[in-house]
Design a protein that fits this description.
- 2 copies of one chain form a homodimer.
- The first copy, chain A, has helices spanning about 30-40, 60, 75-80, 85-95, 100-110, 110-120, 175-185, 240-245, 265-270, 290-295, 315-325, 345-350, 365-375, 380-395, 480-500, and strands spanning about 10, 20-25, 45-50, 65-70, 125-130, 140-145, 165, 190-195, 195-205, 210-215, 220-230, 255, 275, 280-285, 295-300, 340, 360-365, 415, 435-440, 445, 450-455, 460-465.
- Chain A contains 15 helices and 22 strands.
- Chain A starts with 9 loop residues before the first strand and ends with a helix.
- In chain A, strands 1, 2, 3, 8, 9, 10, 11, 21 and 22 form a 9-stranded mixed sheet that branches. In chain A, strands 4-7-6-5 form a 4-stranded mixed sheet. A 4-stranded antiparallel sheet of chain A has the order 15-16-18-17.
- Chain A is of the alpha/beta class.
- The interface between A and B is large, with 67 and 67 residues.
Chain lengths: ~500, ~500
């Protein structure tokens, strides 16, 4: 049994005096916190944002900066794509399922164009051009990218349109996004207090949340929040005891976080009776180069294909980790996942976009590559033959990869062991050599205004949440940009609702 | 958002008077409740068992009655098997993982021979003979059966010994087991009260649990429990809102329960701050005849094999549902799973043991069967060829099915659509035609004495749990007999601990 420090709620009678008094307290200064702080301040509330780190940013600032937006944004239209909130919702329902929140998805998609303009008004720049190939992070400042919308099975349920919007930064745009959002929050006169780790919620006699207790430089301080506390503390990927209890498949992989996703916000709210959803769900950044995978095959330890290689790469990662036992969470051992590609496919991805990935094995024939990689006799031979038949007829009968990416693989063939990883560390940056970098999607149950809901589905007075501390839009699936997306979108709602909670 | 009735804890000050006074109150009269009641009464406590139904039994009485026992029981020895607690623990760690509870597994295995004798002393009969083929429920009164121990990958980590112990009843033994356990509890002078649905825990000012409030024939009654309340209320497979929040893959399938696994015990304890574990985990009874599967191939919608067909059939079910998208929880639609078998394999399973299953398609050649079943061109042809090569060399290089079950498949070949189901309903009885019948494994976090633990891992005064309301031994894997096994084993511990809680 893992012994953890108990998380308790403090009664106001246990608090001698409040050191700080504000209207709205935002706990955590990533993208969700900044969006919440901005809106709360703009609505006229006194706002304080605290963060345990020495400055703003959190995991948001380390991210690629993609924000999932659509329904007909100016960037989509400039790139020649029609889109509607309904098509966007149909895609997200399929991609974020099972059991993605239909009401949140509908609201998010209906408000997406407005949210785009809100980001632009906060200074976030989007270049109106498209990066048109599978990738984790385009090497350009293109403002639009596909995130699986034009891949099977999503092509069956929604008209494809690219919706990955990215700030105009080469490579990782999270830092730029955070600069814009924190400047907006501070211009709106939200105050900040860093090096402050919130440990307990403070409740009134009627169990309404009226403040917090925090540790700051070894001292305990109490902060009064007259209109509400908004938790934007992130997920729990840094808490191995919580992973073991709820999402053990994610244990042992590289953690995508700023090192502070310890689940504290979830636990503080649960101690007050909050409900949670989908605590077993996780995003899986698989350590492969999507452009190489799309031009070749991805196979499991039996040499079988298991996914269309042109889809959103996080979907390949989830399939590898949750279904193919990469990582070895299930009995049978940590199994390999391989990218198989020929020279033409390898060279088609420019060297800088390969992030240092090289073939781990090269065979003059499929038979030789099979021997070198230790795949079972005949497995790769069969799979290459079948794949090349599909390429010849222009149709992938098994996994429906788009014909654009289907081309017979011509020996010599290279195999890339996904566990050899991607260097340098990137959004898919697997620093431990497990083939995967992960974060959690499960979290607090919230309503459309960010109220935290209790086990019976009623809102808890004075308590709000947004960003990865909440479950947000997500079922067990994931698409890049939906974290910064739902964090900022519902963070804004939470900020507005808290400010009005007089 | 699903609106549920709020679950609240009642302060003792809100209870006018207690209608009934006892020492130990057991809530739920399945196998765990009966075991707890017996031990609490034997330890000298006044015991009352309540159940919402009109009599004892719950899901336990509807089950096959298997109890997972080993470490060298008399039945194992009589059948010629050596076994040790260490081998048993190694198997369970692999089979119940990821993140199965190591302390509980060690305790359970160390105490397993004693627990066998306890069951025998309660009158549970075990015939000392072995049923030696994969099955859900043997059609004999054999007291011992394999539950995957002699199948890959478990053969890699533990010396195989059969550990499925079953009461001497033809077919389903759960009713006989429950008759023995309830008679034991009542002989030990545990009282019973039926038609009584517990709705709230009652707590003292120090938050210790001191009783419950229940509904009985439309009236609210309060029961004082001076030494403790033991929750044995079952899982939450009958609560679709909880499934959507925690285990959406299980939605829509046949529910293995007595219709009362509504999660009420979990919610009542959570309202008091209890922690939970592995709420996404589920057992999957796949609607196939294990003896047919072992003699043939199980393939997915691409005609690929994905598991060794001679393993514990629940493992095939978990793989089908969680990894092959049978049920369609993930995007891409509800995909088929097929059993492919030839005439010799089909006839080798006696007609009564086929539970009415018939081929849904028959082809004179693999090519014809492929066309009839709609499998992609060439898929089944490749897989049959590869399988027959493995059979010829006596080694399944892909999934390591034991050579005993490897035999070339000779046309004509039959395909059985798993979603066509199994009739009559059985332990694997899929009454809705989805191909699966399911129950939940996640639940309350408990210690070795059945104390319910809070979010920080500290025990909650006066509150115990056992059976499927608790997470017990389980990670995300499952083996038949571990539910009745951990329910009765840790139910006994909880009963003893509660009786001593003066």
């Amino acid at each position: 049994m893992t012994v953890r420090k108990a998380v308790t709620t403090r009664a106001v009678t246990e608090v001698d005096e409040f050191d700080i008094d504000t209207d709205v307290l935002v706990v955590g200064y990533g993208a969700a916190g900044a969006a919440a702080a901005f809106e709360a301040a703009r609505a006229g509330a006194r706002v304080l944002v605290v963060d345990r780190a020495g400055g703003a940013g959190g995991a948001s600032a380390l991210s690629g900066g993609e924000i999932y937006l659509g329904g007909g944004t100016p960037v989509q239209r400039a790139c020649g794509f029609d889109d509607t909130p309904e098509e966007m919702a149909a895609f997200l329902t399929a991609a974020l399922g099972p059991s993605a929140d239909p009401a949140k998805i509908a609201e998010y998609c209906a408000g997406s164009v407005e949210h785009f303009h809100w980001l632009v008004d906060r200074g976030v720049p989007f270049t109106p051009s498209l990066w048109d190939a599978p990738t984790w992070v385009p090497p350009t400042d293109d403002g639009l990218m596909w995130l699986g919308e034009n891949s099977w099975p999503f092509t069956e349920s929604a008209r494809p349109a690219p919706r990955g919007h990215r700030p105009a930064a080469h490579d990782f745009g999270g830092r730029l996004l955070m600069e814009c959002l924190t400047e907006a929050a501070e211009t709106a006169r939200a105050g900040t207090l860093f090096d402050t780790y919130v440990t307990n919620l403070v409740i009134a006699e009627d169990r309404t949340v009226i403040g917090v207790v925090a540790r700051r430089y070894g001292r305990e301080i109490a902060i009064r929040a007259r209109r509400g506390v908004i938790l934007t503390t992130g997920g729990f990927v840094d808490n191995d005891a919580m992973l073991a209890a709820h999402a053990p498949h994610l244990l042992g992989h590289t953690k995508v976080s700023a090192g502070t996703d310890d689940g504290s916000g979830i636990l503080m709210a649960q101690a007050l009776g909050a409900g949670v959803r989908h605590m077993g769900a996780g995003q899986v950044g698989i350590s492969l180069i999507p452009g190489l995978a799309a031009r070749g095959m991805v196979v499991n330890a039996r040499g079988q294909r298991f996914v269309n290689e042109d889809t959103y790469p996080g979907r390949i990662g989830q399939a590898a980790l949750f279904r193919q036992n990469m990582g070895g969470a299930w009995a049978g051992g940590d199994t390999a996942v391989w990218v198989i590609v020929d020279e033409e496919g390898f060279e088609a991805v420019p060297e800088p976009q390969r992030w240092g990935v090289r073939p781990t094995h090269v065979g003059e024939t499929p038979e030789e590559l099979e021997r070198l990689t230790g795949l079972p006799d005949g497995a790769l031979v069969d799979t290459v033959r079948r794949y090349n038949e599909f390429a010849a007829r222009g149709a992938d009968l098994d996994f429906h990869k788009a014909s654009r990416w289907l081309r017979p693989l011509t020996p010599p063939l290279a195999a890339i062991d996904v566990k050899a990883g991607v260097r340098p560390p990137a959004e898919s940056g697997d620093r431990r050599g497990t083939g995967a970098s992960v974060f959690t999607l499960g979290g607090l149950h919230t309503d459309l205004d960010g109220h935290v809901l209790d086990l019976g589905g009623s809102s808890i007075g004075g308590l709000f949440a947004a960003g990865r501390v909440a479950n947000g839009l997500h079922g067990f699936g994931y698409i890049s940009g939906t974290s910064l997306g739902d964090g900022t979108f519902f963070g804004r709602r939470a900020g507005t609702a808290a400010a009005r909670n007089e």
